[in-house]
Amino acid sequence: MPLFVCAGCSMRIERSMEAYWRNKGKLLCSTCRDRQEMPKKTPDDDRSKGSSGFRVNSNKNGRQQWE
Ligand SMILES: [Zn+2]
Description:
Number of helices: 4
Strand order of the largest sheet: 1-2
Shape: elongated
Strand content: 5-15%
Order of helices and strands: EEHHHH
Radius of gyration: 15 Å
Largest sheet: 2 strands, antiparallel
Bound molecules: zinc ion
Structural class: mainly alpha
């Protein structure tokens, strides 16, 4: 299968040409697709409740990537 670049994180992903045309050239890796389907609920949110400092940092980074 040919290699494409993920539209969300620019990671290289292997997809079929069929998937490429179906999505009009905009392909997402599995990670970005998961985020798109449920943007507010991430597993990291639950795990990092113990350390507030780390949680603030990861949230900030997440938002920057989204926008
Ligand atoms: Zn991606």
